[in-house]
Amino acid sequence: MNIIEKIKSFVKDEKSFTAPSVIELSGGINRLPAPAARNYTPYVEAYADKPWVYACVSVVSESVASTEFLLKNAAGEILQKHPALELLYRPNPFMTGRALRQWICASLELTGNAYILKDAPRADGSPRELYPLLSHLVEIVPGSTAAEPVQGYKYRVSGKTAYYKSKDVIHIKYFNPFDFFYGLSPLAAARGAADSYESAENYNRAFFENSATLSGIISTDGKLDDASRNRILQAWSEKYTSAAKAHKVALLEGGLRWQSMGMSQRDMDFISGLKVNRETILSIFHVPPALAGIFDHAPQYNTREQQRIFYQTCVLPKLTLILEALTEFLLPDFDRKNELYFTPDITAISVLKDDEVTRAQAAKLYIEMGFEKEEVITALGLPFSIGNRKNKRRF
Fold first, then answer.
1. Are 90 and 165 members of one domain?
2. I want to staple 174 with a disulfide (CB 3.0 to 4.6 A). Which of 8, 112, 240, 246 is the partner?
3. Is the same domain home to 369 and 343?
4. 172 and 103 fall within a common domain
């Protein structure tokens, strides 16, 4: 008996079989706790508390926000002016378009979710303003049918709760294999490394504040009485303890000897562990080391190559996800025919362009293959044209 026959054997009456609802497919409404139970707040606080989380989220969100995008029609033509473009350039009286895109991307990196409120509707229903919602304060209200998987959104701020219809909120999320409604952030995977790094920082702070380990030992062959021992320790601490008294010359007498406590293998393993945690965090956020200010790997991979990898594997996929959501859930308010779409402007990303020598070699190859010079110049984006080249005077 094959698998299809086995399934049919369990269904006695095929007509009485009912497809599971959206809630049942997602695991049931009882498995969708409120934001407080999801504990998103520590993820947001990590942006301020954990330095490498801040570094990664900042460089990703700023890069995504500063990358240009285009609005095109079904024919692939670029539209320079459109109400949807104007809205994204100035979404509300308090924010620029770049600030909104940075907010969206940072929310995705920290919580896996970004929510945009479409506000101040015109007579035709299109929004005049867009506002980001604090993602850790949003609760999704599931629908009861497949046609309406999300009924609305609850937004709890300062002890008050606002309710928004699903059509008024754009929800952008990362893939989450555990939940149908909420996204999973990169920080969820990096939290172990981030917490370990924070514990190490707390240890170092305790070292400098409380002298967590010994820097050296004063020894003698003889035996000291309590009075002599206390007098020596007090005098040593008064003269040489604290950063302001560092590098002073010590005078030991009476057979006393100073033995410095060097770095042990355990200390070196501790430092190696810090680097491993740091690189784990960077790799999860897809941030090359040089872009976070770490140049240990610069001799192996130059900064430009790291930038190229960063844009190809991180910035463009995340920007595309955001633009596709805006195309699907914002543009229909302005374009009833669904003929318009947003797309990244790859030509504006300098690190993705080949250098001049590479492009010149490619141009020579194409011209030798029989292509027209003007076509080759346009295709490769060379910084001149045949006409301008002919009109320039040679000296």
1. yes
2. 112
3. no
4. yes
Pairing of strands 69-72, 216-219: unpaired
Domain-located, residue 200? no
Q: What gap in Å lies between CA 235 and CA 231, rounded to an integer? A: 6
Alpha-carbon distance of 288 to 111, in angstroms, equals 21
Phi, psi at 165, each rounded to 5° = -70, 155
Query: Within this chain, do residues 89 and 159 fall inside the same structural domain, yes or no?
Result: yes
Whether 341 is covered by a domain: the verdict is: yes
**Domain of 244?**
216-260
Same-domain status, 248 and 138: no
Q: Strand, coil or helix: what is 160?
A: strand
Strands (E), 228-288: 257-260
Element spanning 169, H or E = strand 169-173
- Is residue 393 included in any domain, yes or no? no
Cα Rg, the chain, nearest whole Å = 31
Is the domain of 117 the same as that of 23?
A: yes
Spell out the per-residue pLDDT of the chain, length 395, in tens: 555 555 455 544 545 445 455 555 554 444 433 343 456 788 888 888 888 889 999 999 999 999 999 999 998 899 999 999 999 999 999 999 999 999 999 999 999 999 999 999 999 999 999 999 999 999 999 988 878 889 999 999 888 999 999 999 999 999 988 888 899 899 888 877 766 655 555 555 555 555 544 456 666 666 767 777 777 677 767 665 655 555 555 545 555 666 655 544 444 445 555 676 788 888 999 999 888 887 776 555 578 888 889 999 999 999 999 999 999 999 999 988 889 999 999 888 888 776 666 777 888 888 888 888 888 877 776 655 554 444 433 33
Q: Please give the single-letter amino acid code of residue 327.
A: T
Same domain, 122 and 243: no
> How many domains does the chain fold into?
3
151 and 296 fall within a common domain: yes
Other Cβ atoms closer than 10 A to 380: 15
Distance CA 337, CA 341 (A): 11
Classify residue 4: in a domain, yes or no. Answer: no
